Amino acid sequence: MDRPSSPPPRSGPVSASNAVPESNAVPAQDPQPSNPAGSAGPAPRTGAAPHRGGRDQAGRRRARERAATDRDIRQTARTLLVEHGPEAVTLRAIARELGITAPALYRYYGSRDDLLEHLRADVVADLGEALAGEIAGHEAGGPRRLFAICRGFRQWALAHINEFTLVFASGATAATSSTAKLQQLTEPFGRLFLLAAGDVLLADEAALPSDDVVPAELRDDLAGYRDALLAVLAGAGIDVPPQRLTVGTTYLMMQFWARLYGHVTLEVFGNYPIPLAKPDALFDALLADLAREIGLDTTVT
Question: What pLDDT is recorded for position 113?
Fold first, then answer.
């Protein structure tokens, strides 16, 4: 008589000492069978190769996780900046807040300077968005937009002192070299300011200085910067004739920014030479002076 056939073997060897009755077996993942000692050749594969779509999904999942972690890093860095200032934004502090090791951050940023440059770009984008709201109610193409930007810049700086410090009052790093500063013309804040200045340059009433007012030692540098300004304006669809944006006009624009920036910086850090009960009045006077120097009526401020 034939003997009853045995049940099919279970995946993987099972010894008598660790066999589990089928009724009590707990479903488990199929283990990858090991290659028993002395057997010839590699152990057989228990399943088909992962589908390419599965690999793609895993790659997308890792990309999403990486993006989420990058956002977490930047948000944590921004919180440290706002609450404690630029000096508090360190890789060690960010890692401590996120519960990870500082070396893990180097997967995302090559150095602290690299992280700060990305954070600076985030702050500049927010500033540009705030100023775009300030000028939304003003007529496009008129000089009032330039002075609305000046006022909005001051208000933002006074309300965001630590962010202002990072972007406008921190020492230059490798990431903020002269070349990078020229590229900042195309960033939200620089672009808004420059486009508004372009509107003023095209205004018939604007009084533009001659090149004779420029010290001879500065003319070569200003000529190169003038060419960069013309390129940015042209890229934005604003065709400023070269005779309107001369070396003398470029010098005037540089002086305009230096006076605005210097005034705001003194006010932000409380460095006015005398205490002022009404600082708004002093800022109004500054804008009126700047308008007169350009040949504009002070009512545009």
Answer: 94
Q: Note the pLDDT of residue 172.
A: 55
Nearby residues of 5 by Cβ (< 8 Å), 6 or more positions away = none
Tokens of residue 163, six digits: 């962010």
Angle, CA 171 vertex, CA 166 and CA 175 arms, to 5°:
85
This model's pTM is above 0.85: no
* Residue 4: CB atoms within 10 Å: 6
Contact 221, 262 (CB under 8 A): no
Q: What is the pLDDT of residues 99-133, one digit of tens each?
A: 988 999 999 999 999 999 999 999 999 999 999 99
Domains 61-110 and 123-300 share a fold: no
The CATH number of domain 61-110, selected from 1.10.10, 1.10.3470, 3.30.1380, 3.30.1490: 1.10.10
Closest CA to 226 of 203, 253, 189: 253
pLDDT, tens only, 208-255: 899 999 999 999 999 999 998 998 888 888 888 888 999 999 999 999
pLDDT in tens, 157-181: 999 999 999 999 986 554 444 444 5
Give, in words, the CATH class of 123-300.
mainly alpha
Say if CB 152 and CB 134 are below 8 A apart. Answer: yes
Q: What does the domain layout of the chain look like in residue ranges?
A: 61-110, 123-300
